[in-house]
Each structure stands twice: as structure tokens, then as C-alpha cells.
Structures
1.
Amino acid sequence: MNNKNIKIGNTLVGQAQQCYMVAEIGINHNGSLDTAKKLIDVAVDSGCDAVKFQKRTIEIVYSKEELSRPRESPFGVTNGDLKKGLEFDLEEYSAINKYCKEKEITWFASCWDEASVDFIEQFDPPCYKIASASLTDDNLLKHHRKYGKPIILSTGMSSMQEIEHAVAVLGTDDLIILHSTSTYPSDLEELNLRVITTLKKKFPSPIGYSGHEVGLHTSLAAVVLGGCMLERHITLDRSLWGSDHSASVEPHGLQKLVRDIRVCERALGNGVKQVYDSEIPIRQKLRRI
């Protein structure tokens, strides 16, 4: 049974709790602190609970060959130019930390290497996210646990055997597991949202969903299926330059998604069949016996 509640900051995430809404900024700031702040504003205005960034130590995560690979971008002509151009440093993350406190919204990051975990820890985040790409990196999983923070584990491009192994490494205490499909954008036929139910039966941890599809309806369905956390990439404009924008939600869409999820949560109820006081006059009027 998924009866655990995990505390992120001052908010409980889990069964019978309001779905925890995470706006994934990731690298959609395109290297601009000003854009990052605008995206934080979008998340706040939409009623999200948190925003999430990504942190990498470029020289650790990518090989020299990969960094030298030709790739045209606003930052230069190699893949290394692009990766370095998208990476925020201490000054920029300090500004993000300050801005999120001013806006009263939680922020955290997915860290792709041990040094990045150590870097983000100086801001005392309430939790850490482990990206799908890092699910099989046992040393990185163990390093996250070093700081005793709740862990959010994404499971895209992973087999059930790999997920089971990662959960065994991390343990189920303070662990939230997100079903995900790691294509950008994802095809509807490959979302397989019923895996949320499968994971709920298999693990005692709260189960959520990290979506990369176009549209909003499927994310709403993920919550109705029992997802206790929803993460979607956000953008100011889906036509902007960058690999993640096409699989992201624009401001108006994010407002609509949060609104509709809150409506559905009110309608789902507690599952106990009852006769409401408002029904009694109708019953008296219409029933013969």
C-alpha cells in the first residue's frame, strides 16, 4: 500500500494529499538568468509548488569527444560550447535561490554528478531529483543519500529490473518514484500511464509522473490514476530555440493544467459511497419505494 507521505519543505506529498506540482525549468532558461526568473514567475502565477533546475559538471558528465563534437548553437560551434552556455554558476544559482525565497516557491535540482550534488547542497534544497539518465549510476544514487534529503526518482528509459535495483540502492524511505517516458516530445502510444498503477502496487513509495508529451489531458489522467506528484517542463514559448521547448508547457497551458487538476481532486472524493444531504429531497421526490 502507498501509505507513505514524504515531506518536501513544509508540504506533504503522498496518498490523500494534494498533487505536488513541479514546474521543470531545466535548461529552458537558455542560459539567461532573466528568462529563469520569468519562468519562476510563471510557476508562481500558475499555483505550482516548486520549480526545478538541472545541474551538471560539464567535464565530468561529458567526454572530451562529445564536447568537441560539432554543433551549431547561439553559444558557439561545438557541443561543449552549448553545454557550457546553458550551465548556471554560483552567482546565478545564488540569485535563483534569493528570487525563489522572495516569491515563496520551493526550488531544487536534478544533479547529474557527485560534484553537482555537493554544489547544490550549499543552498540546502528540500529534496533532490535523480534524472532518468542517472537511474543506473549507483555511486551517484548513494552520494545523494549522503545528505539525508528526500529523493525523487524518474524512471524513463528504464526497465522494471533497473528500477527495482535503483530502489534497492536508495531504499524506500523518503523516496518518491515518477513514471516517465524519455522522449521529447513523447508519443501518446508510448506514455503507458497504467504503469503508474503498476508502480503503486510494487513499491510502498508515493508514485508520480514526469511528462514530456504535447498537451495537457494525459498529465491530468496521470493524476486521476493516482499520481501524487506531477512534473512538466515549462517554457515561455514552445517555438524557442532549444531541445526541450517543444515538449514543454507554455504559461497559459500551465495555468489551465493546475486549475483542472485541482478541480479533479475535488471531484475524486474519498471513494466511500454515501447519500448526500443534497440528494435526499430528490430521492423523496423520485423513488416509488
2.
Amino acid sequence: MDFVDYYKILGIEKSASADDVKKAYRKLARKFHPDLNPNDAGAKKKFQQINEANEVLSDPEKRKKYDQYGKDWKHAEEFEKAGRQQKQQRQQQHTGGFEEEDFGGDYSDFFESMFGGMGGGGGRRTKTKFRGQDFNAELQLDLRTAATTHQQTLSVNGKNIRITIPAGIENGQTIKIPGHGGPGMNGGPNGDLYITFSIENQTKFKREGSNLYTTVPLDVVTAVLGGEIMVDTFDGKVKLKVNPETQNGTKVKLKGKGFPVYKKEGEHGDLFITYEIKIPTNLSAEEKELFGQLAKLRQHGN
């Protein structure tokens, strides 16, 4: 297996911090994402390499093993176990218990004999099966797309896979696609693919779980006298009754007009509206006179 320099792939130094790894990965993942380079085989391969590098370098334990064992990092535990066994056998030899076995080389040769084929005794050992590496990817959606159940095609390891994304997926949520990670070794199972969703919100609605929040302007006359107004919801306009003497900052709830509930088809959260009363400007002389009369009436009433 050829050595792959994950630091070089991400364009960072070996001394890079965890934050440096994260920033480098996100920058390159956006640049080489298959959705942005649909006909570029080179970009697809680069995207896979970027994900593989991030999978290792963003995990402190995996990074430590990679730095120590290089291309054999995935088998570090087996490597270390074999080394301990060798040490124990040598200690036993010195105490007069057993004859020391000649492994015919350094750690690397010994590791190969234990896990790669022929054993030191001349018989063929059963190859140990190793599970493939898990892959991580980030998928960007806008809020309105995340509100609908839909399918997307992703390119992983040169293969296209179609996934169904349920309505109501959360920002930062991760889903697992079994068996679509790195290939296993010696007949071992494939790793899994983990997709983390990054949801951009360019609407006027704030999302918290399955609930939505928005602010609606209200003219002073309607606030005082009451009436009906048309307000925007996430899926269209609705008519809303305003009670007389509505105060600034009053909140109302529209049940079932929020965001879809994840994996519960037909269920939605609620929409919470906050009224923001607008004071009129550029009043005409007649309007100012009417407000003046109202002020006098209020004074006499008090």
C-alpha cells in the first residue's frame, strides 16, 4: 500500500491544530464537491482524498496512530499487540522458560508475517479481516430544500449513490449510510459513510427545531382598532385576525404552520409571530390634526 500524506492533501503542516484541520477541510470540500464539479473526475477523486484525510486528522486517536505508523496506522492495535507478545517471549527466554523465536527482521517484517501471509513456522496463517475506513462528508442544503423529502445523488469512491433526505433534517445532523465507506481488507466489511448536513437559512424565518419564528409589522391604526391582515408563513400567506389594542411585541402562535417534524410525515411545528407596531411618518396636516384631537380626548379622558 502506498503511503498517502494526509497533511499534504489538506495543505497543512504536521503541527497544524484541530481548528486548522477543520478550516482546511471545509475550504477544500466546498471547492471540490462533486455537485459543483459534476463532470470532473479529478475533482471527484480529490474530494474523496480530502474526506479520507479529514477522517484521520480530525480524530486525535487516529491522527496519533497515523503519525506513528504511517500507512499501517489502521492496524496499529494489532501491531502493538504483536510487539508486546514479542517482548514477552524475549523476557521468558531470559528467565529460562522458553526458546526465543527468530522473527527474521524488524517490527515491520514481524508485523507482515503475523498479518500479511506466511508465518515464521512456514505454515500459512489465516489473514486477519479488517473493516474499511469510515468516510465523512458535508452536504449543504438551503432551508426550503430541507423542508421537503427529496433525493440527491452523491459520488463516493467513484460510485454514484442515491439517498433520500427526509423533510425536517436539522442543521449539523449526521446520518449514516452503511457500507459506503472505504473498502475492507482481506475480505473484511466496508466502512460506513457519515453525512453531516449544513443548512443555510436565507428566509425571514428563524428555525428552532420544528418551530419557526418571525416578526410581522403592524400599522398603528390596526393595532388600536383591530382588524385583519395577511401574513407570510413558510408555505404561503394566511389571513390573521388582530385584536383591538394590540401592544407592540405581542406574540401569537399559528399551530401547525412551522417546520416539518423529522421523519414524521404530515406533522409540523408551530409558527410564532411577534407584532412590531410601526409609527407612521410623513404625516399630512390633516393627519396631524386628527392625532392632536385624539391627544386632547385622551387628556380629557384621564
